[in-house]
Amino acid sequence: MKIKSLVLGTAAAFSVASMAIADRGSDGHVNIIYWQAPSILNPYLSGGTKDVESSSMIIEPLARYNQDGELTPWLVNEIPTVANGGVSADLMSITWKLTPGIKWSDGSALTAHDVVFTGQYCMDPAGGCAQSNKLADVSNIEALDDLTVKVSFSVTKPFPYGPFVGAEQPIIQKAQFADCMGAKAPECTAENFGPIGTGPFVVTDFKANDVISMEANPHYRDASKPAFASVTFKGGGDAAAAARSVLETGEFDYAWNLQIDPTILSQMAEGGKGEVISSFGTAVERLMVNLSNPDPALGDKRSTLEGGPHPFLTDAAVRRALSVAIDRNLLAEVGYGAAGKATCNVVPGPAMYVSTANDECLVQDIAKANNILEAAGWKRGSDGVREKDGVRLSILYQTSTNAVRQDTQALVKQWWSEIGVETELKNISASVFFGGDQSSPDTYQKHFSDIEMYTNLFSGTDPEAYMGSWVCSEMPMPSNNWMGNNMPRYCNPAYDAMAAELATTAAIEDRARIVMAMNDMLMQEGAMIPLIHRGRVSAHSNKLGGVVQNTWDSELWNVADWYRN
Fold first, then answer.
1. Are 200 and 88 contacting, i.e. CB atoms less than 8 angstroms apart?
2. Are 162 and 136 in contact (CB under 8 A)?
3. What is the per-residue pLDDT across 86-105, written as a single tens digit (0 to 9) for each?
4. Based on the number of CB atoms within 10 Å of its own CB, is 188 exposed (0-12), middle (13-18) or buried (19 or more)?
5. Superfamily of domain 283-376+387-534
6. What share of the chain is helix, strand, coil (3-state, %, to 5)?
């Protein structure tokens, strides 16, 4: 974690050394498979990792995080700091200087006006931006000249690296998206499926929830990169098939998010055609509790605060019992092996931010869970399901289609049945569940269920923007096109106040104290039930070189450096 050295010291420029000397496109074709198929190439309209990471090959931020979690210049020559004059002494603004000569894939120049437009696009009140938490407290964005952009804040900002940093905050071209502001944003299909970018590849064909074809960007800033002339980015299938396509058949060069039985994965790797890679960052598989009412009879008010509170998940005793009944260590062992650890926190790292206040959940205790519900007045009916005041503890529990997740669902359903909770399981295609289709009732943003399960994480090593995901204003609802990150519909003014305090706190020890307090509030007020601290697990062909796994940014962050062995 390097907040002090970055803001107050001198940030050393970092670049990934080219691992092969070759002409652009000289290594032919590369095949990538993400079994959760991308549904859009605009991360401002989708928070799904599959969409953010596929987009990162095409559109890029000003800076991103390297494999060690360090801020790295990308479309700029250096990271702004107080020492180099890029961050104002009063911490109220940050000024970025674009690297001269960078071009969009259509040959036009990248300018500060594109950066200004990108901020305006996401901050437009008439639209719904999935990444708006990264722009919290921004009061103004202005182009000082064609290569200089200044971001001003409404409060002191000791960590000013939210806007335009990381894969979730790429720069989009003003000329292309000028007519796609606000409510029109989701209607711009051509732009959202084929953004003009500064990245190493250009989209030639996009089939939503299926396959993306790309070719090398002829105007990419390094004339020797990318080494691959073209890319097939395949989506769909399942994690096991994706792993098999790299490790056994050799059909693909890279497979992402191999959430499969670790024993099976090890057996696949024995074939010698590829390598499994993994590392831990901030990813947590969790149950997101719906604190609003998902009753379909509510119509447009369904799963919104306007529709009223959840009939029983707003009871702290119910949420605590559900959590205590789960054997997280068994879930980790069966589903993740060495790539999973039981956790009771939504912030699992870096270590300075990890709380121990919620460790009750590390030990499964069915008897305790039953006692908690009994003491709260939830009595078993003739069918064994608990009820109170005519309300039954009956849960619709949804997640994406994946063998490990379905195994987890089955185990959790069994444990919950032992405490008198009825559970209906639902699994949804990952491409739909994590997609941004506003017409679908099955997206994780809409959360038309009682409990939903997925993994999320934050870029870099500072959790400020991530913790801002659960302020009141981040709730998805019809008025913001169901965008936002607050899936539980959690709203507590005290939490919002801590988010505001974190935004203006400089001392690292104080930031850690606030983050832990926010984590503990979310846990103890039951907005979510963490399960597993997950390591990223992927695989690449032995014939693919240059891969540097990164848990702090897009997994494809250095795809420009990949080459054929």
1. no
2. yes
3. 999 999 999 999 999 999 99
4. middle
5. Dipeptide-binding Protein; Domain 3 (3.10.105.10)
6. 30, 20, 45
